[in-house]
TrEMBL record:
Organism: Paenibacillus antri
Residues binding substrate: 115
Record's protein name: Aldo/keto reductase
Annotated catalytic residues: 57
Family of the protein in this entry: Belongs to the aldo/keto reductase family.
Amino acid sequence: MTVTARGLADTTTLNNGVKMPWLGLGVWRVEEGSQVEQSVAAAIANGYRSIDTAAVYGNEAGVGKAVRESGVKREELFITTKVWNADQGFDSTLRAHEASLEKLGLDYVDLYLVHWPVKGKYRETWKALVKLYEEKRVRAIGVSNHHIHHLDDIINDTGVVPAVNQVEYHPLLSQVELLSYCKSKGIQMEAWSPLMQGNNLDHPTLKELATKHGKSTAQIVLRWDLQHGVVTIPKSTKEARIKENADVFDFELSAEDMGKIDAMNENRRFGADPDNFNF
């Protein structure tokens, strides 16, 4: 698949008609206060329109402050946050959503996600998100770190298909079956830690393609995401790197290039397995 995105303003259309930018800024492990405020401000100033945070990141207040002070109209931005595991369950999820809005200082978020499929809770949590969506309190709802069987559960329970599934996705964990399933259901897949948390960016295949295209290995990986139809949210706190991560719209990987990166897959996770986590 070749994505026709030509810049940071370009979007994919979610299954409810809402438009979501193909590339955004992730703020996992970015400190609350000046660090996250400066990162978000730099991203927005350089054309980013999508910011991804979560309750557990502890930096929603800083994200919201930077958004409000950015000078960009709220409706031109796409803000994502997530309900944390300890807050899952029906009523507690509704309260968690309110708490996130209060911290962000925003009237709404564009995308609200179930952060992990907590056993015995994720199905009720999803029902709470459906309620929020039906009451027009969020523009779109989705999940994070959900395997196919988790997705089947929540779709069968409610008849509501998530707009997004945000998962660990990178050349060493290409999740071919999950991506195929999501495309078949109209679920937009989104990559967290697309740059493998800084691991293996010196892989010979990536270096070869970086030389061929005159790009960094990170840019090669992000372009690979986009050409597989996967939204990507690389994290950085440095303005130069934030700019570099977005400079992926002026070249295209060939089918042969894509195949070489696909062949790097080792089903290797740097994060937890959604079927086996204890937090």
